Amino acid sequence: MQFSVIIPVFNRPYELDELLMSLSNQTFKQFEVIIVEDGSTLKSDRVVGKYTDRLNINYFEKANSGPGLSRNAGAELAQYEWLIFFDSDCIIPESYLENVVRFLSSYNTDAYGGPDAALPGFTTIQKAINYSMTSFFTTGGIRGGKKSIDKFHPRSFNLGVTKKAFKAVGGYGKMRFGEDIDFSLRLINSGFKTALITDAYVYHKRRSTFRQFFKQVYNSGIARINLHLLHPGSLKLVHSLPACFVVGMAAMVLLSVISPLFLLTPVVYSIVIFIDSLKISKSFNVALYSIAASWIQLTGYGTGFLSAVWKRLILNKGEFKAFEKKFYD
């Protein structure tokens, strides 16, 4: 069993360095690495050069098109049966590929995804964001946790797929946001099997500031409505919960003019987040920042979702994207 690891990168040589270091430490060695430089002005060629004697690595540049089409470009060069996609802001545990091989040797699947985690060396903000993006109390656990209220779909920060399945669905589409869910939906709708490998986790840095995080989740809210129009029936109740959160919490604030008791709802929610994050992280600071990260995650996604509902479903406007020029930020 051999793998082609494909990594799109844009102005992130410092991140790529850590990712390639982690890949060079894999206990399973039968893989190649394909780096796709997506129109970067801050290139990664020198970083790649550090690993040419430790990894079977192929590096090439192309005009900027976003990570989805860059993954397609990398897949065109892949030699092996299994394609694995990582984001450049990931660090891979040394037993990752060994765990994947063990799973794939026992279970028949066409694609898999894995969860993400935070390293002790991550910043407090990064740990808080990791909590908010994986917690049952914010996302319903749909991003690879053990508890989930929606069917798991592999996501491209940590996704493996057979070359046969990848080519059968035409690879990634042109969406700049939500392209991984579009890809997963097309796989499932075409009859291919997907699986969650719980011990094939990666350390995912995500965004380094709350401002960047808000941009990311706002665009994700927009993408969910775009995905609904591309894939009727894909929109589930869980996807609308952040929008309900925004409306509900706004109502609580307005009603607090009548009675301050209405403010108990956001206060209690914040306390629940704090206690749950403290239990997981064992850090007061991370738990405190998790409150902010969770509110940003829900309000960002919820307002993006509501904006798309208004413009796309009610006003019937064409597809739109926010912060497109800042896609990687």
UniProtKB/TrEMBL annotation:
Glycosyltransferase 2-like domain mapped to chain residues: 4-152
Keyword Transferase assigned: yes
Transmembrane parts of this sequence: 245-274, 286-310
GO molecular function, one term: transferase activity
Cited InterPro entries: Glyco_trans_2-like (IPR001173), Glycosyltransf_2 (IPR050834), Nucleotide-diphossugar_trans (IPR029044)
Keywords per UniProt: Membrane, Transferase, Transmembrane, Transmembrane helix
Pfam families xref list: Glycos_transf_2
Designated name of the protein: Glycosyltransferase
